[in-house]
Amino acid sequence: MNQRIPISKVKPGMILSMDVINHNGSILLKKGVTLTDKTIQILFNKYSISEVVVKYEHNGEAKNNNHKMEIIGANPQRYTNIINQLNHLDSTGLLDMIKNDAIKVGKMMLETNFIQHTKKVESIFFQAIDRTEILELLLKFRVISENGREHFNRYIKTSLLATAIGINLNLSNSELVLLARAALLYDIGNCLVDQNLLNSDYILPKNEKKKLNEHVIIGFQILQEKFPKEISLPAYQHHERFDGSGYPNGLKNNDLHLFSRIIAVVDVYTALSYARPHRPAYPTSEIIELLLGSGDILFDYKIISEFLEVINIYAEGSLVLLNNGDVGIVTEIKGKPIGKPVVKLIYDKKWRSLHGKEIDLSTNNLYFIKKVID
């Protein structure tokens, strides 16, 4: 039985059931260690550890079950059943399916989302997914997580974009492969939290938000067992912020791993570009404005500027919907500010012809692109 308890209530003789990690993601004590008065004092006084997870005996079975549900979701039996089924299936065939699907999705996204490094990003991505442990985690996340297909696509997009930023930052090939893998798996903890919270159609109150925030700790614990810290640490740090206002430890920019800073920017972009039950998808222009306005406040501005260099927000030939209801085609992006191309108008909101009138969104502040029409 595992229980997360405040360090003030820890007693000598208790056994850790989860590694204790410091604010930088380094392991202080391994799970299975029996705590002593001295180690408890060191954790509290030297490392400011506020709570630990220990093996905890309790007569109340209901409390047992409630804690388990906090960690693996509203229906723990569903998770257990799925894992058992996966373990008895032809894993080779399933992994081949996931790999081929990832390649297909990746190629499609590279064709529509990038203006730089397409071939190199593709090569790095193929290397990143060519490992059994990566594919196994992607498979489990895809099957266990509700809305698994949408999440699967989103994390592939995150990986591709993060890799492109890494190329702009002159990372080595081996570093790029690690970054691509980290950006595929950084949110893996979300498959072991309450899916009702993850897919809620309302803004979560503080107590429920705290439960959902545990996904960063869960993800780190999953990844650190098989992967180097370059891959596990972004799972722990991707919700930290430049100014120290993030979680779980309120770390500031210089204390964060480079991969964590890159993934934090791309995570926000991809998260806001998908609709959620409690809100619609944000227009790309609004996401870009949000990121630019958060530079060196919430996010590293250098990472944001490199991100804007690699992404193709509106490709030439894209069919777009403007904020006034007009429909047009993007005809020119070169030399224009991010998100403000020239658009040839085709129809107004009542589908009346506009005869190809062109509007330059970089000089006309009354209009902006609301969304791309698929």
From TrEMBL:
In its UniProt entry, what is this protein called? HD-GYP domain-containing protein
Where does the record locate the signal sequence feature?
none
InterPro entries referenced in this protein's UniProt entry, alphabetically: HD/PDEase_dom, HD_GYP_dom
Q: Which Pfam families does this one have?
A: HD_5 (PF13487)
Source domain of life is Bacteria
Q: Which residue numbers delimit the HD-GYP domain?
A: 129-323
